[in-house]
Amino acid sequence: MSRRMSGSEHDQISQLRAFLNRQVIGQEGLTLRxxxxxxxxxxxxxxxxxxxxxxxxxxxxxSGVEADFHRVQFTPDLLPADITGTDxxxxxxxxxxxxxxxxxxxxxxxxxxxxxxxxxxxxxxEAMGEHQVTxxxxxxxxxxxxxxxxxxxxxxxxxxxxxxxxxxDRFLLYVRxxxxxxxxxxxxxxxxxxxxxATPSDKSDQISPIPQKVLLAARQHIWxxxxxPTLEEYIVQLVxxxxxxxxxxxxxxxxxxxxxxxxxxxxxxxxxxAHAWMEGRDYVSPEDIQxxxxxxxxxxxxxxxxAEAEGITTDHVVSELLNHVAVP
Length: 328
Description:
Distance between the termini: 17 Å
Number of strands: 11
Strand content: 5-15%
Number of domains: 2
Mean pLDDT: 90
Order of helices and strands: HHEHEHEEEHEEEHEHHHHEHHEHH
CATH topology of the largest domain: Rossmann fold
Radius of gyration: 21 Å
Helix content: 40-55%
CATH superfamily of the largest domain: P-loop containing nucleotide triphosphate hydrolases
């Protein structure tokens, strides 16, 4: 018998999810993964064509949470200090004082992250991995509730700097956003039209911002979601199969140059727990693992030149492994 769970934290976050889906029409997958990343204490990289509500999604999330939000437009002339902050000299007394950068907000949008050079992208590495920033000899802790959502445009590649694998591995999720359906497109046009003509008294579709303590409590609840030992082994086998697919498929072995790191095992477990919790269950099912596998693994697999020549993507690799690795 399936076990359902209840609780005020789950109810409030479910209301937030419904609010996001009303404001960001046709991108239910993106809004769900935003919440999963927030609850699993991770970061996400979102790739999609312009105009697919990537920026709108995190702005709406920020409006539904009691949290500081900051958007950084990444450009080729950006400097690391523009992200982390820097020590400012005070001529009055000859001392230095630290001026925090935008990374010290709770929710940070790194817009078009691949427009900035590698040294600026690397400025995010310590912040994302260690929840702290080091300036000179001193380290400064970041807020307990901290999420970076980076975006990149897959269409234009001129003047861009592809993210190195070391930084890609710091992202819990790599989400690809597709165009909405025809019906969703109609609803988007209607929503924008209604917002343009609405008066302040008409704007009733609002949500009371959720306190940070509710989100932090929900993070603890996620670790109480039951994960059977057989499913824990299933997660491990999936990740290990990305490194050595030969027991499952010689074809997939030809495609893979390097597989996922142990961060993938940790991330897939956390995301599967969060997915189950978001769906109102207190146990993880194989479907939770499979639902998150592509987003957790697609950026952690390096393909061979042969696979790239054949037009194979990492999504093909993950799909093949899901088909071959036995489900308990």
